[in-house]
Design a protein that fits this description.
This protein is an all-alpha fold and about 575 residues long. Helices cover about 70% and strands about 0% of the residues. Strand 2 and strand 3 (about 80) form a beta hairpin.
């Protein structure tokens, strides 16, 4: 049982590497790629990376001519540019360039899908894994019980929206990594009352990267720069901090200047889409009036709210008061609170606060590691009085997060807003009807001359999730405590998950959204309906097959396909009777 008096020692490096191995397996295994979606949040960044390497310019005209139209673009003086902050596109350049060189060396054409996978891995997943290593070590030095520490860690790494965006070529996860990376360096410097030249330079670089990756990150950049004035000692170390910060800043200014003629003007002024341009130019770049719907929805909505999807973060409500009450951690906690709170306040003023097709409140991603620290503190406080209950609660909350947030992240990380409960309205049917994203299991089977598709190909992911929960619980010293934690976790997990997986009778648009998703699913041809259609085309379908095909289409919201199957079933039955 967890000691109530002596703080546990920091985790061994072996345990940290085990945590990173679990995360890496998830990041690498699934490749949720749906070309039909043409996700502008990812593709416009990807197009800019390709333009830099292939054309030597920020303009994506030639890339759109090659790969097709994409939204979230700005039109200025006859050329088209990404409207996003340039950081992610610039981070993708090394990986894309290496893949381009590889293709040229082999004299093979560059494959767009493979190139996207490369930049996802090199510019999103790999930087996140590096951050997660140091994040786990940092959490481990807070003196929390191992079951609380590892539960909070895996909840954030694999049971939050960070999973969705760590495996896509977007900025939300990496902005969280840079913000908290700078915070870890500065927090250590404040308590040590010194920082090295390299540490100060890196802290400045990471602090400024928050804004270079996504413009709302300026809140975090501003707070961290103010924090640096208190933390960086000796004073002359502020020079390397500024030198580090100026690099991403110059990159952003150069992009603005070359693309839009003014270092201080982002592309939102010139959005190609007229309606989006009008919204972006309302107020301060789309920030005008405070939305009460945003204030509550971003945090507590059962379909996309931060806390229902990652319930372990609720412990932050207990952790922040304790951190603020202690003199040693008060300033650090104020910074850790100001970044998510300030970002939330800013987004509540944005007319596009919902963020479109998204897993969770993507604009709040930057605050997750800070909330995780407070949740760790809240869990530590609870564990002093109720160690087994706290362990069960944390493991159960982590399991719920794996399903509520991890499931959509792995299967379909661009959820239409019509899905008000993504797990029962989408993920349930994808699993039941044998839809699965591209994944390593299918690829390995193909290399061996075999086939492995559908839900069977995702079994390693399901098993890994169960293994991760058991691994957290096994941090308890006694076998009895481990078993009690796992048993209790089933209760807490079910409690957290129940409202998230309950049907929403008011979600009238969910069936049509489901139909859209499955009609254009890739890889295609391996789901239940596709296999039944093969049997109908070969003339081998039984009446039971026809009935199941109709039922499958109806469950997927594909009403026109269901009616067609009914007509064909009657025709086939009549033909069989005539024979």
């Amino acid at each position: 049982m967890i000691s109530r008096r002596i703080p546990p020692p920091p985790p061994s490096h072996a345990r940290t590497w085990a945590a990173i191995a679990i995360c890496a397996a998830v990041y690498v295994y699934a490749f949720p790629y749906q070309p039909e979606v043409n996700n502008p949040n990812e593709n416009v960044r990807f197009f800019m990376t390709a333009a830099i390497v292939d054309e030597g310019t920020y303009a994506i005209d030639a890339i759109r001519a090659r790969w097709g139209w994409v939204n979230d673009a700005a039109l200025y003086e006859g050329h088209v540019y990404s409207v996003k902050a340039p950081g992610t596109s610039l981070m993708g350049v090394p990986g894309y360039w290496l893949y381009r060189q590889w293709c040229d060396l082999r004299e093979t054409p560059l494959d767009r899908t493979t190139a996207l996978w490369v930049v996802r891995m090199t510019a999103s997943a790999l930087p996140m894994l590096v951050f997660l290593f140091f994040f786990h070590r940092w959490l481990g030095r807070r003196g929390a019980p191992p079951v609380v520490r590892d539960g909070v860690f895996l909840s954030v790494a694999l049971g939050s929206l960070l999973l969705a965006y760590a495996t896509m070529f977007v900025s939300h996860a990496t902005s969280a990594a840079t913000a908290f990376g700078a915070f870890m360096l500065l927090e250590r410097a404040r308590h040590a009352q010194r920082i090295s030249f390299g540490g100060a330079w890196l802290a400045g670089l990471l602090a400024a990267m928050c804004t270079a990756l996504e413009y709302p990150g300026f809140v975090a950049t501003a707070v961290l720069c103010l924090y640096a004035l208190v933390c960086v000692r000796p004073w002359h170390r502020l020079v390397p901090f500024a030198l580090g910060a100026i690099l991403p800043t110059l990159a952003v200014l150069h992009f603005h200047w070359r693309a839009f003629g003014d270092p201080m003007t982002p592309g939102h002024r010139y959005l190609e889409h007229a309606a989006f341009r009008e919204l972006a130019n309302e107020g301060f770049f789309g920030a005008s009036t405070f939305s009460t719907d945003a204030a509550g929805g971003l945090l507590f909505d059962l379909g996309y709210g931060l806390f229902p999807l990652t319930p372990v973060l609720l412990l932050a409500f207990f952790g922040f008061p304790r951190l603020l009450a202690r003199r040693r951690t008060r300033l650090d906690a104020l910074v850790a609170l100001a970044i998510p709170l300030g970002t939330w306040g800013l987004i509540c003023f944005m007319n596009n606060w919902r963020g479109g097709w998204t897993v969770g409140p993507r604009y709040l991603a930057i605050g997750l590691p800070f909330l995780a620290w407070a949740a760790l503190e809240g869990g530590t406080w609870m564990a002093r009085s109720l160690p087994r209950v706290t362990g069960a609660l944390v493991v159960g909350a982590t399991g719920a997060a794996f399903i509520a947030s991890g499931g959509p992240s792995v299967y379909y990380p661009h959820l239409p807003e019509a899905f008000t409960r993504p797990v029962p309205q989408l993920v349930r049917w994808l699993v039941r009807h044998d839809f699965a994203p591209y994944n390593a299991g299918s690829w390995i089977a193909q290399q061996l001359g075999d086939e492995l598709w559908g839900t069977r190909s995702m079994l390693p992911m399901f098993l890994l999730a169960l293994l991760a929960l058991a691994w957290i619980a096994w941090a308890q010293r006694r076998l009895t405590d481990r078993l009690l934690v796992l048993i209790g976790a089933s209760f807490f997990g079910s409690t957290f998950l129940a409202p998230v997986v309950a049907d929403d009778p008011n979600a009238t648009g969910a069936p049509d959204a489901l139909a859209y998703v499955v009609r254009f699913w890739e890889p295609e041809g391996h789901d239940v309906a596709a296999r039944l259609e093969e049997r109908t085309e070969s003339g081998e379908a039984t009446p039971e097959d026809w009935a199941r095909l109709v039922r499958t289409y109806e469950e997927e919201g594909r009403r026109s396909e269901a009616r067609s199957a009914e007509r064909r079933a009657r025709s086939a039955a009549g033909l069989g009777a005539s024979r």
